[in-house]
Amino acid sequence: MIARVIQFISEVGGIGALEPETEIYRAGFSSVRVLELLLALEDEFHVTIPDKEFMTARTPAAIAGLIERLQQAQPA
Amino acid sequence: MTRTITVPLREPANDMAREEIIKQVAHLSPLLRHPRIPPDGSRLEFEMPAEETNGIQQHAERLCAMVQRSLRSLERKVVYRSDAMSRPVFRGQTAPGAGVYVAGPGQLMLEDVPLQLFEFLDRALAELEQQWNPHPLLTPTLIPATVLAKCDYFRSFPNTVTFACHLEPEAETITAFRARHESKTDLDDKALDDMTTPEACLSPAVCYHVYHRNEGLTLPAEGVIYKVRGKCFRYEAMNMHGLTRLWDFTMRELVFLGSGEGVLEQRQDCVERVGAFLDELGLAAEIRTASDPFYIAPDMASKTYFQLTAETKYEVSALLPDNERLAIGSLNYHTDFFGRAFGIDVKGTGPAHSVCIGFGLERFVCAFLAQHGPEPDNWPANVRQAIQGRRERKPVLEAVSGV
Fold it and tell me: Maximum distance among all alpha carbons in chain B?
């Protein structure tokens, strides 16, 4: 999961490889691309991610954790 | 012959989706007319010439789906609501009335009462701006194309740019152009071939000049504040009508450059003072989150989402008759976008953040006349008295010479 999340962040943001605990905005991820990333992750992991929770998840590990939690709460 | 196109929406469009869809669908075709979404939000409807409808339904469906998905569950935030919002009154209209002369598409002349109102609002806004003791800057109407490119304008709003063209400075070209136009009453269809690639455009906003003026500078820690006023130009294709959407209009702006924290505090201060000004005018209006009408491009939805979630744009939204609204001003936070684009730093904090507070004067006149009507007798006493006081004052030359 975490590796795929990192891959999405890097691809959408056009930035290099990230560590799980790297703050993605400090690593150069543009805030303007947030929606693109959000929609891509929702499509990939088949979950609906609440906007506010996504905004507070600022590292790959936090985003992956949020998706896992949502997958358990929102069974397909 | 005209055909009505109906696009069912996947789910009922809320207030924000409704506005965004109407804003964006205009980009699909210059022939598209009267886009509307009924109160139940179930569908988009518009008119098109019957012979031009090929593929438009699919394009509109895709656009609506994208807008609705990208806006998600966002709700508009109102940061100021004027007193008159609780009892809006409309004594006028938005169509050009007495004292408003339509000179061409999106081009107006004002005289008499509308002009006096325009001048009053201009003076009143100048006084409002003076509370921040801003540095005045006189700016040209032209803006170098390179400056607009740095502002990302050619990617975000290419459809609205007005290019400043001129003939190739070659005697042969100019002589041929002159000969072809000896008895013409309009430009001929070969004129564009005689022009050079534009090196300048007509400025779409006055704040861009401020960033250009400060290019490469390091500003003091407390930042700087400018006031600018000038003509602006935005070509809006099918949208140009009446006083509401002009190609050529007048803008007054207050521009703050400084630290992120500093300019955001200043914007909050502006919200309060602009709100109080709306109450003084008795205008029914709100200051609320909004987004710019970005041209349809892969990153359009992302930019809109960012503006709305990060609350970078507040618009001053005035009520008009028939449940319409008009943005008469905006209070925009650009993060450090212009600071980075123009290499402007703030001492000790890095790239400058910026805020601009802008008002479209003709739109302000339009909203005022729509709500208070064309008769000054029905206007708030402070506005009426200010205008009548100037009417009664003798012209300077007359007073000096005693004629």
Answer: 73
Q: How far apart are CA B13 and CA B16, in angstroms?
A: 8
Q: Which residues of B touch A34 (CB under 8 A)?
A: 302, 305-306, 309
> How many Å separate Cα B336 from the centre of its chain?
22
Measured from the Cβ of residue B2, the count of other Cβ atoms closer than 10 Å reads 12
Instruction: Reduce the secondary structure of B326-347 to three states and give it as a string.
Output: EEEEEEEECCCHHHHHCCCEEC
* B166: exposed, middle or buried (Cβ count in 10 Å: 0-12, 13-18, 19+): exposed
Domains annotated for chain A, with CATH where assigned, are 2-73 (1.10.1200.10)
Q: Does the ipTM surpass 0.90?
A: no
Chosen from B72, B289, B336 to mutate, greatest number of chain A CBs within 10 A:
B72
A72 shares contact with chain B (CB less than 8 Å): no
Domains for chain B: give ranges and CATH numbers. 2-71 (3.30.70), 78-161+204-385 (3.30.930.10)
| Digitized pLDDT (tens) for each residue of chain B, 403 residues in all | 889 999 999 889 888 888 889 888 888 887 888 899 998 999 999 999 988 888 888 899 988 988 888 887 788 899 999 999 999 999 998 888 899 999 998 999 999 999 999 999 999 999 999 999 999 999 999 999 999 999 999 988 998 999 999 999 999 999 999 999 988 888 998 888 899 999 999 999 999 999 999 999 999 999 999 999 999 999 986 667 777 889 999 999 999 999 999 999 999 999 999 999 999 999 999 999 998 877 766 677 888 888 888 889 999 999 999 888 999 999 999 999 999 999 999 999 999 999 999 999 999 999 999 999 999 999 999 999 988 877 665 555 554 554 4
Query: Cα(first)–Cα(last) distance of chain B, in Å?
Result: 62
Interface of A with B in 20-59 (CB under 8 A): 31-36, 39, 50-51, 55
